[in-house]
Design goal:
116 residues, alpha+beta, eight-stranded antiparallel beta barrel
């Protein structure tokens, strides 16, 4: 009887570990986890993910109110760790998501966004 309880305890522990590790909130390649997060680059650009398919692109400018920073609202998609952001006029910007960093080639240079 004790062996059965021990075996069931080990199986239950393994199952719970698999269940909790597959739902990792830090896996930002999952649009559900990306939704509601904000990312900032060294160039003072911001990506604010409003939902599982929509994001807002902000550019922080000195001496201007925050409400004027919004440049566009558009869609994004993720396949594996590759993200495609549609910009103004649906111009596609493609990049990668690695841990808490998003690297996207924008405006002629590589922008690295870090989760805030």
């Amino acid at each position: 009887m004790k062996n059965k309880i021990l075996i069931y305890s080990i199986l239950l522990t393994g199952f719970l570990f698999i269940l909790t590790s597959s739902c990792n909130k830090d896996d930002f390649t999952n649009p559900k986890n990306l939704s509601g997060t904000t990312w900032k680059s060294q160039s003072n650009y911001y990506l604010k993910f409003a939902s599982k398919t929509t994001y807002k692109f902000w550019e922080e400018e000195a001496n201007t109110p925050e409400e004027e920073w919004l440049q566009w609202i558009s869609n994004y998609s993720i396949i594996d760790n590759t993200i495609e952001l549609l910009g103004e006029n649906d111009y596609p910007y493609t990049g990668t998501i690695i841990d808490q960093t998003i690297k996207v080639f924008m405006f002629g240079e590589m922008e690295e966004f870090v989760k805030q």
